[in-house]
Amino acid sequence: MVPVASISALTAAIVVVHIVVCFALVLLILLHSGRGGGLSDMFGGGMGASAAGSTVMERNLDRVTVMVAIMFMFTSITLVIRLQ
After folding, report:
1. Over the range 11-36, which residues count as b (16 or more CB within 10 Å of their CB) and which as e?
2. Would you call 42 helix, strand, or coil by DSSP?
3. Do 31 and 38 touch, CB atoms closer than 8 A?
4. Which residue has the higher pLDDT, 58 or 19?
5. CA neighbours within 13 Å on the CB side: how many for 78?
6. How many degrees, rounded to 5, is the angle at CA 15 between CA 13 and CA 21?
7. How far, in Å, CA of 62 to CA of 70, rounded?
8. DSSP string for residues in 23-39
9. pLDDT recorded at residue 80
10. Per residue in 5-22, pLDDT tens?
11. What's the CA gap between 26 and 30, in Å, rounded?
12. What are the Cα distances from residue 23, in Å, to 9, 14, 38, 39, 41?
């Protein structure tokens, strides 16, 4: 265990970014559709949007979720390396 006094400012900044990314990832995953309509139904898409396949909004949500997941992996690996 690393003593608190020896944690650098860079490590503290990475921890803060990691926490923000964690909450963002949870929020983005909860916005995805399960078996229902998901984001398109939430904003009034209804059955027409679900019958036509994935909407532009859902594809963009997928892209943003993947980018945030990559940031989560990057901050996780960086913290493991820095705290050893």
Report:
1. eeebeebbeebeebeeebeeeeeeee
2. helix
3. yes
4. 19
5. 15
6. 105
7. 12
8. HHHHHHHHHS-SSS-TH
9. 95
10. 677 899 999 999 999 999
11. 6
12. 22, 14, 19, 18, 23
